[in-house]
Amino acid sequence: MSCIPSEPFVVSFWQLALPEITVPTDAYAATIARLRSSISRLDTWINTRTTTAEWVDAYRVNKTELSTLADKLSTEQEEQGKVVTTAAARLDVEKMYWFAGKCNKGLSSTRLIMLNGSFRQRKERTRTNEG
What we know:
mainly alpha; 5 helices; 76% helix; 0% strand
């Protein structure tokens, strides 16, 4: 029995965007940590120096901007997590329609990639024949 992905699978596969597949938690954590570290260094710098009113104002503005950016990134990470959860739920519902029959048992990702490659080759051949 040949396992060829159905049209719903191809459509679902090509509609997915990277933010629907995974949340780059390590990148978010590293960036937020760098921002928090910058705030800490800024606090240390301002506390160890004799400052003028201009420096204090600049310090407050910079600290507020860094804190706001860190908060925005945390919120964005949470929202992206919700997008991934929603996409996973959609894929769980759709997966029963992806393959005809019972051939999806044991279908590996390598096989799917090979099928995708043959789909592209057929598409390219069709374009060549038409042009």
